[in-house]
Every structure is written in C-alpha cells, then in structure tokens.
Specification:
23 strands, single chain, seven-stranded mixed beta sheet, alpha/beta, Glutaredoxin, four-stranded mixed beta sheet
Length: 636
C-alpha cells in the first residue's frame, strides 16, 4: 500500500470514529449494563411522565464559565444534562429542556436568585456559581436549589420528585402521633429541658423528607379524635394513648385509610433521656418500650415489647468507648438486600438498613388478613430480653442468642380487619363520687356510636415495623458542610425506607421504584460469610474457656477463707496445679484461635489473588479469542 493510501486510510478511520460517536449520541436508544441500571429511567419515572397533562419547562442553570469550578461539578453537570434529556424523550413532547449559563450581573443570574436557587462558592477561586433546576408548569414552580455530586445515587428520584410535585396543587395530609421529637423539641418542653440541663432535640431529616410530599398534622396522645380529611396516619412509638384515640385509629384503618405503625421494645432516644441519679437509685428509663396491645390483638398480630431480636449473621461491629475494643453486637441489625422483600414496592430497591435493638412481629393463625413480611433477619436469629441490653457487651449478647429462625422486623398487613372495639366507642372514665355532690343528677353514659365500623369496608392497609431508632439522623445520614451548605449524605437506605413507605401508603407509587437505585456501599458478602463461619469455629472453644475460668475462680474464692500463719493466703498444691493446668489450657486455646484467624486471613488473601488474576486474564482471553476468530474467518 502506498504512503498516500495509508494516510487516506488513517484520515477516513478518524472521520469514521467521529461519525460513530456522533451517531451513537444521537440515537435515542441506550444500553445500561450497570448492576442496578443507574443510568436508565425507572418504570416509575416513565409512568409518571406518561401522566403529564400540561407541558412542563425544565430550566437547568449551570455556571460552566465560573473560575475554579471543581472538575467533579463539571462531570456531574454532564450527568444531569444527560438524565434530563432522557426525561424529555420519555415525556413525548410534554417537557422542554433549557440549559442556561447564568453569567454574573445578567438577567439570568437575577432570575436564578429570585427563583430560589442557592449560589455555591468555589473553594479554589472563591467565585459563586449556580447549579440548580427550575421546573415550571403554568403558574406553578418548583426548584432543586443546588445539585450535590455526593447525592448522585438519588439523582433520578430528586428529578422525578420535583417534576411530580410541580403538578400537585395541594399536598396530602399525613397525621402524626408520636412521643419522639421527629419535628424537633416542642417549644413548651424546651424550657423544661433546659432547666434539667438537657439539650433540645433538633428536627430529624425524615420529617423534612415527609414534609416535601405531605402536610404533617401533629396529633397529641390525649386527643379523643383524629383531624378531618387525613390521607394517611403515622403512629410512631405511642405512649399513653387515650382509649378514644385508639378507637379513632381503629375506625380510620377500617375505613380504608392506610396506617403506618412503628413500635419499639428498646428506644435509644428514651434511654439517653434517663437521669443518672435515677439509675443509681435503681430506676430504669421511662417510655423505652411501646405497644398497642388492644389493636394488635384484635388484628391478629403477635408482638412482645420486652423481647429484642439478635442476629448472629447480621450484627454490627461497634467500638466499646471504655476499652476501645471492637466487637459485633447482634442486636444492632445491619441488614442487606437479601433481607428485603423484592416483590413489595417499599423494599424492592433497598440494599442496606440499620435497626437498633428492634423487636419482631408474627401473625396469629386463623386470620382473614394477609401478613406479608417485608424485612426479615437471617436464620441465625433469636430473642434477647430487653432488660439485659443495658449491662451486656457484644460477645455476651451473642452467647444469649439461641437461633430459632428468621424474624420479621417489618410487615404489610392487608385485607379486612375486625374492629378492636366491637361494642363501639369506649365510654368516658367515670369520676369518683363527691360526697358534697351526692344529690346531683349524674350524666347519662355515652351510647355506642351507631355508625361505628365493626369490620373493614374494603381492603385496609397496615404497615408494621418493630423499631423507631432507624428514623433518627444518627442512624441514617451523615451531615457535612459542602461549599458552605449543609448536605445530608445517606449512610444506608433508612431514609429511603421511610419515604418509600409513606409515599406507598399515601397513594403515590410512581416514585417508589426510583429511590435508592445506586449505592456506593457494596459490602464483600463472601468475606463476611467467611468471618461468620470462622466465628462459629472458635466460639464454642471460647465458651468452654470461660466455663473453665469460672470454675477456677470459684475454687480461688473457696480458699480465700483459708488463711495460715500471719493471716496470709496459702494456696494448696492441688490449687496451684489447677491454676497451672488452666494457664496451659488457656495458652493452647489462644494458639488455636490465632491459627483459625490466620487460616481465615489466608482464605481471604487467596480469594483476592484469584480475583486479581481473573480480572487480568479475562480481558486478554476475550481479545485473543476474538482475534483468533477474526483471522480464521478471513482465511476461510
């Protein structure tokens, strides 16, 4: 081949590559090979976009010319634009995208500021830049004030939520009955807490998430009825609910309205509120456990507020603040994808959650309702008495767990419920007779409401979860200062579970399949399983060692009463030999423990080397196989 022909071939190859890239970017079809399809629109987004009636305008503001703009923001801006273009294609003409560069001192910058977009500050150049979205439909307008790269895994949900919310004129109402400060400390209690030298509790992020889709209506425990026109009801760690309020909850559920019920056998919030002086006097913390036995018994649900679930496989590694040692706590449940129901919308997309000292539910036999477990522990689970949690450490708790099978942490109960108040509304409590008013005419007792429901009108929905600590920020998010703004980085899917469930119960199911699509937390489950198996190997030996240690300590205590001359302790030859034997046994078992751990480390290292070799050889093998096939085809 001549030199000019070679040069022409190179030029044509270069032009061909450019044309291929152009055609690839122009074709609407996409192939997403990621494990969780994080670059494709979910079915919920497509369904929501298909319901749009009036056109929407998407104005993406990004200051691409700002000096010192971090490269991660430039890359993320490209990611956001590509995602929005998919929205426009799926909207079938109902969406219009405008990408705007708001330069300083221009009408675009003024409009971005007036619409509520938050200017961010570059750490390198110190110049302000905008990176947000304004969605407009008719006279309605919603915004994403600022896009954060550390929230990329929730990008599709954030976009879909703002598109959905701009179409809603009135928010739905969510009734909230709780003894926990999810909305922050009540102003009336703040002064009392300051007098007791207790810090007021800030509002939790989960309440802010719920408020974006619902109007939260607080209901006090002393109320006798529920506010009118509620779309859903959340009852979280209830304490001392009046009988009439329980009757109102019962009728609300039987009327077909959904109820979210979260109970807890061991609330960390109330444990922290306990007074040290009360503990010294032997008085335990108040309101630690919650229960609604009247309602649960009528609905055929079994729940023990004194029992906490321990899971030997899904425990969490925690550091003891006293001795700095790390041990696994089986009552802190770090559950993974296999623990969540893949057939139920609230949990199908979840990958990790954290529950702290949770209880469990089960269905009684002979019920007409359907009990569907949504979150379950592993088969290596058992019950632990709640009163033992205050004194036992991780290793001690593991010894108390006797595996009895999977435990249901959360469940969905649907169908026709029988009323917990078949005789109608409960009567008012009768006051004791006052001798001074003996002759006064007593009021007649309230008659049962004639229109009270004895069973569900149609299908009712009750969501149950046996923990409340997972709703707090301490166990769900990590707050950080990001370019002058407070950003919340999820550490698990607790927040997603809370929003999924409320949105599912509230009727908006399109957004549920979007949340939590991509997670950067991918635990090496194979290595974790190997660690669990190794723990089983030497746990019996550790138990045997502890038993022999207790026996020797008992003998030592017995000879402490035997004193010889000079009031000195004299150890018998038998006791000295027993101590020497024990020391030898302890050294032997310690050596066996080190051998097991060394073997475990060898297995893990061998697995890592195997994966490294496979990652190196597989691409070479594929390219070689393709080359061999290509050469052989040309020869034929």
């Amino acid at each position: 081949m001549k030199l000019s022909a070679k040069a022409l071939a190179i030029v044509l190859l270069f032009v061909g590559l450019i044309l291929v890239n152009y055609l690839a970017s122009s074709i609407p079809a996409r192939v997403d090979t990621t494990a969780e399809s994080i670059y494709s629109l979910s079915a919920g987004t497509k369904a929501m976009l298909g319901k749009i009636e009036e056109p929407l305008v998407l104005n993406l503001y990004f200051s691409k010319d700002a000096s010192g703009l971090p490269i991660q923001y430039k890359n993320y801006a490209t990611r956001v634009q590509e995602m929005l273009r998919q929205y426009v294609r799926a909207g079938r003409g109902k969406l219009t995208l405008n990408v705007i560069n708001p330069r300083p001192d221009t009408p675009d910058e003024e409009k971005a500021t007036a619409s509520g977009l938050t200017p961010q500050v570059s750490q390198q150049g110190g110049e302000q830049f905008f990176f947000g979205l304004i969605v407009t439909q008719a006279d309605q307008q919603k915004t994403i004030p600022a896009f954060m790269p550390n929230r990329e895994q929730f990008l599709e949900y954030d976009l879909s939520k703002v598109v959905y919310s701009v179409q809603q004129i009135d928010k739905r109402k969510l009734g909230l009955i709780t003894s926990l400060p999810l909305q922050g400390t009540d102003p009336q209690q703040m002064q009392m807490m300051m007098m007791m030298r207790q810090q007021p509790q800030p509002a939790q992020y989960v309440a802010s998430e719920w408020e974006q889709s619902f109007n939260l209506v607080k209901v006090e425990a002393t109320a006798t009825e529920l506010p009118a026109n509620l779309d859903a009801l959340a009852v979280i760690h209830p304490q001392n609910l009046s009988p009439k309020l329980q009757f109102a909850i019962d009728q609300f559920l039987l009327a077909g309205k959904p109820v979210f019920l979260a109970l807890d056998p061991s609330s960390q919030h109330f444990k922290r509120q306990s007074n040290p002086q009360q503990q010294m006097m032997g008085q335990g913390p108040q309101n630690v456990s919650s229960d609604l036995p009247t309602l649960l018994n009528a609905y055929g649900i079994t729940y023990d507020p004194q029992k906490v679930v321990g899971d030997l496989e899904n425990g969490t590694d925690l550091q003891n603040p006293q001795n700095r040692q790390v041990s696994r706590y089986p009552t802190w449940l770090s559950l993974r994808k296999e623990s969540f129901s893949q057939k139920s919308l609230p949990t199908a997309q979840l990958t990790s959650t954290l529950f702290v000292e949770a209880g469990s539910f089960s269905a009684k036999s002979g019920q007409t309702t359907t009990f569907t477990p949504l979150i379950e522990t592993s088969a290596q689970s058992g019950d632990v008495a709640g009163m033992m949690l205050q004194f036992a450490q991780g290793d001690d708790l593991a010894k108390q767990v006797t595996p009895t099978g999977k435990k249901t942490i959360a469940a969905l109960v649907t169908g026709k419920f029988k009323s917990a108040f078949p005789d109608g509304a409960p009567k008012d409590e009768e006051k004791k007779d006052d001798p001074a008013k003996k002759d006064e005419k007593k009021p007649e007792p309230a008659k049962p409401a004639a229109d009270s429901l004895k069973e569900s009108k149609g299908n009712s929905t009750l969501f149950l979860i046996a923990d409340t600590d997972w709703l707090f920020d301490d166990y769900s998010i990590q707050k950080m200062n990001f370019f002058g703004q407070t950003a919340a980085q999820p550490i698990n899917d607790n927040l997603a579970l809370a929003s999924n469930t409320i949105e599912f119960l509230g009727g908006s199911q399109d957004l549920i399949s979007i949340r939590g699509k991509g997670s950067s937390l991918r635990p090496f489950t194979v290595v974790r399983t190997m660690e669990v198996e190794a723990q089983k190997k030497y746990q019996e030996k550790l138990t045997s060692l502890d038993a022999r240690l207790a026996e020797v300590q008992k003998k030592l205590s017995a000879i402490q009463t035997k004193k010889g001359e000079g009031n000195r302790l004299v150890a018998t030859p038998e006791m000295a030999k027993a101590i020497e034997d024990f020391q030898k046994q302890q050294a032997k078992i310690s050596a066996e423990r080190r051998e097991i751990r060394r073997a475990l480390r060898e297995d893990i290292d061998r697995l890592e080397k195997k994966l490294l070799v496979l990652n190196f050889l597989i691409p070479i093998g594929l390219v070689g196989a393709f080359g061999f096939w290509f050469v052989r085809s040309r020869k034929k």
